[in-house]
Amino acid sequence: MVDKHISRRRLLAAVALSSSVAGCTGLSNEESGTTPSGNSTTSVEVTKAVTGISNPWGLAFLPDESGLLVTEQAGRLLLTDPKTGDRTTLAGVPDVYARGQGGLLDVTLHPDFDSNHLVYLTYSVADADGSTTRVGRGRLERDRGQIADFEPIYTARPFVESASVFS
Q1: Which has the closest alpha carbon to 69: 138, 18, 166, 17?
Q2: What was the pLDDT predicted at 55?
Q3: Which of 9, 141, 18, 149 is nearest to 88 (CA)?
Q4: Which residues contact 92 (CB under 8 A, 6 or more apart)?
Q5: Which end of the chain is more exposed for a tag (fewer CB within 10 A), N or C?
Q6: If phi over 0 gives left and psi between -120 and 50 gives alpha, with beta otherwise, what is residue 63?
Q7: CA distances from 152 to 30, 59, 71, 135 (A)
């Protein structure tokens, strides 16, 4: 079985470099440029799963490995099939403040996702005082192509004005 924490970290690195989603089963110390930290090394195998994604930010593997949720900074949440590359843009995602480093950020699944289908999102929001980060959740209805009953559950305070060199 693939260690999903390693896969996610390596996958995000591949996404940042190629604006596509690729799966990695591991990376040896020589290939990653890291200092050995103990155990043996592993080989790397990269398979391009999805291409043409605009500023991917976060991802979450569905537990049955039948899909991958990918956030795009501008506010799209994609449900992708890593085997075919097919993707669906999910409805029901909140409006986001996509400026600088803000936008639709990370995605993760509830620990009991198999029974409740809850998906958590972090995203940027703005008001007259500036912007901040919010956490919300909704239920993935895969057959309807949506996140249903989405609700904000935490908003960081205060809202702040900030200038980003990444704008």
Answers
A1: 138
A2: 92
A3: 141
A4: 138, 146, 147, 148, 150
A5: N
A6: alpha
A7: 43, 19, 17, 6
Query: Helix, strand or coil for residue 116?
Result: helix
Q: Residue 60 to residues 81, 104, 138: CA-CA distances in angstroms?
A: 12, 14, 15
> Exposed (0-12), middle (13-18) or buried (19+): which is 114, by Cβ within 10 Å?
exposed
Q: What angle do CA 162, 124, 89 make, to 5 degrees?
A: 140
Q: What is the mean pLDDT of each run of 10 residues along the chain (167 residues)?
A: 42 43 45 52 79 90 92 96 90 95 96 97 95 97 97 95 60
3-class state of residue 127 by DSSP: strand
**Hey, what are 156's tokens?**
């960081």
Global pTM exceeds 0.70:
yes
- Are residues 92 and 116 in contact, defined by beta-carbon separation less than 8 angstroms? no
Q: Which residues of 148-157 are buried (b: 16+ CB within 10 A; e: fewer)?
A: eebeeeeeee
Q: Could you tell me if residue 89 is left (phi over 0), alpha (psi between -120 and 50 degrees) or otherwise beta?
A: beta
Name the token pair of 144: 């309807």
